[in-house]
Amino acid sequence: MKNLVSMKDLSVDQIMAILKQAQAFREGAHSTVKNSYTMANLFFEPSTRTKMSFEMAERNLQVGVIPFEAGFSSTLKGETLYDTVKVLEAIGLDALVIRHEENSFFEQLVGKVKPAIINGGDGTGNHPTQSLLDIYTIWQEFGTLQDIVVTIVGDIAHSRVARSNADALTRLGATVHLVCPPEWQGEFDTFNEFDKVIESSDVVMMLRVQHERHDSNMTFSKEDYHQAFGLTVERERKMKDKAIIMHPAPFNRDVEIASELVECDRSRIFKQMENGVYIRMAIIEIILKGRE
Question: What is the pLDDT of residues 30-76, one digit of tens each?
Fold first, then answer.
């Protein structure tokens, strides 16, 4: 694996290898990368979990990290992403984590620059590291992905998480239901009624309403949305005994999920964040070992 830009680039065997490497790190394994490498995290969109967990993963692997702040970079002077990456290539960086508002930004980079490219999220397109940590959390919970029913609810059309997960989970043997208002269906086949699928779900994954990506005619009141498509306390009571709640975060309490459910016994939301460090360690480890 030379880069990681989309879940579609990973085979089932590669996905499982990443999960097993993450589990090894979780159990105390140390990096086996022989050489010293240097990375940078280029985030052109806001991020807390992805950026900070990559930084923790890099620290845990003892990888050198060069700070990069988009708001103080030459991109403000008109420098293109490609030229920025070429600068970092010239000064000797080995790998770059990039989040960018442009869908498929990586197409201008992969195969054209020397540093490995890890996609930290592109527009509404892909979020492979989030998908991998979600898959890892489900695998950790149930010991398998085969025949697990995963229901993803919310802003489907604008969600890079939904796109990445729907493809990968299906290939791993899970059944994926997508639930959203008709306005947010995009190119997907979806359910418009949450209550039709909640009782059969092993995993209920809620998504943030991405107001910043909406046209003005795609608005709901918080109260109306919560009642129609939110995970309310009443809906949680209909879930299977061993079903779990997930959310890629940030979450809007009492919009897509009732505040009291964020940290309830079913919730794996903060476990996902913890798992994100191990998954990102595994990805960096595999990519850097491939450069030796």
Answer: 999 988 999 999 999 989 999 999 999 999 999 999 999 988 899 88
Residue whose pair of structure tokens reads 């918080």 in the numeric block:
222
Q: Domain range holding 84?
A: 7-126+273-289
Q: Supply the CATH number for residue 256's domain.
A: 3.40.50.1370
**Is the separation of the CB atoms in 253 and 231 below 8 Å?**
no
φ, ψ for residue 10 (rounded to 5)? Answer: -100, 135
Domain count along the chain: 2
- Say whether both 170 and 148 belong to one domain: yes
- Structure tokens belonging to residue 140: 């950790």
Q: Which two tokens stand for residue 3?
A: 């880069």
One-letter-per-residue 3-state SS of 68-122? CCHHHCHHHHCCCHHHHHHHHHHCCCCEEEEEECCCCHHHHCCCCCCCEEEEEEE
pTM attached to this predicted model? 0.94
